[in-house]
Amino acid sequence: MTAARTSPLTDLPQLGLRERKKIKTRMAIRAATYELIEDQGYDATTIEQIAERAEVSQSTVFRYFPTKEDIVLTDEYDALMEEELRARPADEPWFDSLRYVLTKALGAARAEEPEITRLRSRLMLQVPAVRSRMIESMSDTGRLLCRVIAERTGRDSTDLEVRVYAMSLIGGLSEITIYWAENNCEGDLGDLVNRALSVLEHGLPGE
Question: How far apart are CA 117 and CA 120, in angstroms?
């Protein structure tokens, strides 16, 4: 068994003690879940087993993650991505900002938890419940991007054009994960992100 590793987000100085404790608990629950899934598969892994492995109560697991699928899919990177995007120069082209932040986030994930990145991608492809929940959760990340895009463009975050633009990005990024898993997680994920962003920015080659 390969032990699940998680990113040391609890070391971030801008987070208060309470928030660091919450992140530590979430990370422990996720690590326990990944270890159990690697040992015995997704369907055989129960919330009771996860709670026991993480040394928390089942109610604590449900307080942080409403479903087992949420444990697999949730990470701490959305909030950090939002912060990083807001920190980019206001006059920087949007896709340059997005490419920079996504490349940085992917680099951190691959450095800290490469086996978990692969496992999550396989589960999104192979487990219908995980894939369905992934599609549902896309709206949360989409709203995040709507806020950032609205700030950058001076538009309202609820504008149809902003929402369509944001969800086009999210849909494209989600498809990268599925494509990568379909191809046995071979190749560089960062290269796939750049390819996807180029399509979104310039359209299909040859158009």
Answer: 5
Biggest CA-to-CA distance, the chain:
56
Residue 185 φ then ψ, to 5°: 55, 30
pTM (2 decimals)? 0.72
For residue 147, CA distances in Å to 81, 95, 135 come to 12, 16, 20
Q: Token pair for residue 61?
A: 């697991």
In the DSSP assignment, the letter for residue 9 is G
> Cα(67)–Cα(70) distance, rounded to whole angstroms?
5
Residue 87 and residue 149: Cα distance in Å, rounded?
13
Dihedral sign for Cα atoms in the order 54, 120, 5, 85: negative
- What is the pLDDT, as a whole number, of residue 71? 93
Q: What is the pLDDT of residue 112?
A: 61
Count CB neighbours of 73 within 10 A: 20
φ/ψ (deg, to 5) at 137:
-75, -15
Given a contact cutoff of 8 angstroms between Cβ atoms, the answer to whether 173 and 193 are in contact is yes
- Regions of the chain with pLDDT less than 70: 1-15, 76-78, 108-113, 206-207
